[in-house]
Write a structure and sequence with these properties.
By secondary structure, the chain is of the alpha+beta class. Helices cover 53% and strands 18% of the residues. The chain has eleven helices and twelve strands. It has helices spanning 3-28, 33-74, 90-125, 144-150, 154-157, 162-165, 214-255, 263-292, 304-312, 334-355, 402-412, and strands spanning 129-133, 139-142, 177-183, 187-200, 203-212, 300-303, 321-323, 329-332, 359-366, 369-376, 416-421, 428-435. Strands 2-1-5-4-3 form a five-stranded antiparallel β-sheet. Strands 7-9-10-12-11 form a five-stranded mixed β-sheet, covered by helices on one side. Helix 1 packs antiparallel against helix 2 (33-74), helix 2 (33-74) runs parallel beside helix 3 (90-125) and helix 7 runs antiparallel to helix 8. The protein is elongated and about 170 Å long.
Length: 442
Amino acid sequence: MSHDRRVLALALLAGLPAVALASWLVTKVPMSDLGRGTLLVLAIGVWLGAARAVQTHVTRPLQVVTNILAGLREGHFTIRAREIPAADDVLSTLHHELNLLSEVLKEQRLGALEAGALFRRLMEEIDIAAFAFDAGAELRVANRAGERLLGQPSERLLGRTAGYLGLSACLEGETPRIVELSLPGTGGGRWELRRRRFRQGGLPLDLVMLTDISRVLRTEERQVWQRLVRVLSHEINNSLAPIKSVSGTLTGLLQREPRPPDWEDDLRSGLALIGARADSLARFMATYARLAKLPPPTLAPTSVAAWVERVAGLETRLSVRVSPGPEVVIMADADQLDQLLINLVKNAVDAALETGGGVEIVWDVADATVVLRVIDEGPGLGSTTNLFVPFYSTKPGGSGIGLVFSRQVAEAHGGHLSLANRTDGRGCEARVVLPVGPGAKG
């Protein structure tokens, strides 16, 4: 039996005793049969009408609630229930809560629509190719950058498999990583691959994002070449200019008639100057070759304490203080580390001699890394902008190679090098961070 019929049946059952009693009383009252029948029909009519009214009064609010909930389910938030101004009325409270629920859902729906629109706009505008593949490796979503990458509109791409699109490698392996892909829209290139899994409509999807790093690398490479050409041009011109000047002077000297009595001395000094500049240029090119051809480190167990003591003992201009740190052995190339620390200690001593200060080497172990610091009491760094620019030096006769070489050594060992002015006093602090590495011990 439906809810409506149950309500009607219960209303009829509730009025049945009163109708039965009224019918019995009518039979006891002396009147004509016509009057008695009229009263019985009237009582039954009132009984049925009251039962129907009860059914309507109970079910109609439920129908209103049903219509409102159906509208909310369909996304129609303009339907409102009529609220009766009565604080203790249950039906009015129900209608009020329904209206509040409708308002909340409306705001959430608008927020979701706005967020979705913003997300789609961002996906369309970013210069990163984004693809979403389902469990069958079929393409479900592609943004504009993805369309340009594949050289086709989304209408032709959706439903194609990753293998057909040439993106099967993007659904395998660890991410993030660098991959080389040959794609119709851009040809070959190097891409940074990132992949994440999400769910849409209850189904798992793999979001693949490809960032073109070839263009960035080409830009960086061009800037490096430009800097290198400027440095090389500067150094070569510094040598060629005096050579050209001296050679012109010597040529004029040889063409003079009669020659001056000391022309042979002038010739010897000029040729010596040309030879000196040629030697200087050769040393410069050898230094550049050394920087460009740093071999991979040959890793072996290396004691940090022994390494520091060995290098500190090589400096004779100033006694370098060594503050003993924890005993730790790392996997490293001892020869390359020696040269790294020699450069840092040499720079620190040069700075300390200007002010009459000292130099100290300390180290510690933290988070599976060795942190070594070379601290000086010199004048500090005026600017850190060009510290690691090859061949740039503020010291007379400096090659501008030491710090660049040292940073290359640190990075080749999986670490890094940084320089900064001290915060606890005058001077500079060089910080070398190196991983302890597998097979090492502390």
